[in-house]
Amino acid sequence: MDIGLGMMGRLLPFAALALSSTAAQAEPARFERFTYEGQSIEQVKAGPGEYINPILSGYYPDPTITRVGDDYYLVNSSFAHFPGLPIFKSKDLVNWVQIGNAIDRPSQLDFTGRRTSEAVFAPDISWHDGVFYIVNTCVACRNNFVITATDPAGPWSDPIWLPFEGIDPSIYWEGDKAYIVNNRAPDEPPRYDGHRAIWIQEYDWRAGKMVGPSTQLINGGVDISKKPVWIEGPHIFRKDGYYYLTAAEGGTSVNHSQVVLRSKKLRGPYLPYADNPILTQRDMDPNRPNPIGSAGHAKLIQTQKGDWWATFLAVRPYEGDFYNIGRETFLLPVTWKDGWPIILPRGEKIPHVGKVPDLPAQPSPALPMSGNFTYTDDFDGDRLAMQWIGIRTPHQPFYRVSNGALELDSGTPLGDLNGVPAFVGRRQQHAVATMSTTMRFTPEKDGDTAGLAAVQSDRSHIVFGITQVGGKKMVALTSRDNADTDMLVASAPLTATGPVTLTIRADGGKMAFDYEVEGKRATLKSDLDATLLSTRKAGGFVGTVVGPYRYTPAS
After folding, report:
1. 3-state SS, residue 425
2. Other C-beta atoms within 10 Å of 213: how many?
3. pLDDT tens per residue, range 428-477
4. Residues 6+ apart with CB under 8 A from 343
5. Which of 281, 297, 418, 422 sits 20 to 30 Å CA-CA off 111?
6. Neighbouring residues of 433: CB distance < 8 A, sequence distance ≥ 6
């Protein structure tokens, strides 16, 4: 599939900001297209009436879902990337189309000083009385907040800040009342590292403030005697006279799980399901072929036909616990046993292929989000498509889209937490992927650089592009492996003045870097150890983002 994405989707205020640049500075770097080709390692195929997991490939973690009539809406975490909180719409739970970003104005949240895995954590989306609500946490930037919109595509309001600490708030609606449930510190001194609790308090949605007492619902987790860690991501729903509270437990790595408790009363006491967890892969053989692991942070949804499904995050390692593309969104049916919901029985592997929900079949979207796919963005509009994201909140414009090209001025260097790099990228969505761009750029002084960057974090990234060294134009590859300085990996002289095509070929934990000038193609570096872009090495909660980058050092 070859489609131009420059005009896709809603026109973002972020893009409008970028268009306003009139700053006089060095000649911009000009990128004329970006092409992506991706395929999964497992190479599964869906037959008639089947779907492929994950339903959102690549860095789309902490999925939250709600239904309004026959329409489903899903939102993901985005941490310190901007625009943030991507919003998707579907009618069949399988085919999803991004319709907006809830955080798309610099005035909403300020990510200055935030590392890539700080800022907006797991959100929750709900709907009441014609209004959509997202409750969320901005870690290290004022904590918990609520934003609203009458149209889920936006615009979303500025935040209403909430007066409590913790993470992962969600709203439970009962009649005309709203209750916020979230992870907070326990009502006692912590007994161990990772000892947290789940609390509930009423939210006056008309006044935009918390009211009444806070009640602790869960202390520590399902069984505090076993020292469970990081109880978080709570959601409450009601069914057959019971309030069900589901939450993640064990942290988001290999010990991740989903547990459930229930009560006859909203404020408890909540009793755990005897066969918890209702979803985990931590007991599975790590050497199983094509594993899906680290599953949890689920939210259950009932269809208009009465069936139950769950969205959740999980990962697809290419080796051991190594994965570069981040945590992804998966879908599984929920079964009920003796009044308890079960997403997946203990000891069963998360399937790569499942039977589609009993919902009206929908056509595949123009931009696929699952399975193997390709796309090309020719920058043929006047602004970037909503799938492009940068790092931290841009307070000054650094790019323009016009005449079939993306033009980048210089920003701060990658890794400068108090600034915004001139970088915009797309998520790497497959372990096996080819990403390329055709660019025009003439460096004007030593260190002047433009090209493709593959960014996992401020301290773990790769830059492949054109630069000047000792007065000479070069094609160069640099990397940071959990470090604050760049390491030169490879370089070669570049005498041509015309366009250069840069290509990054990813294959699990290896990457190769090709460049083409005047019809001649060469490989600058092959078999680079790219595990530096894995979550295991880089840490954090995001995935690799790849795209154009420009930096000119100060005089």
Report:
1. strand
2. 8
3. 999 999 999 999 999 999 999 999 999 999 999 999 999 999 999 999 99
4. 258, 278, 279, 298, 300, 310, 312, 332, 334
5. 297
6. 36, 37, 38, 39, 505, 506
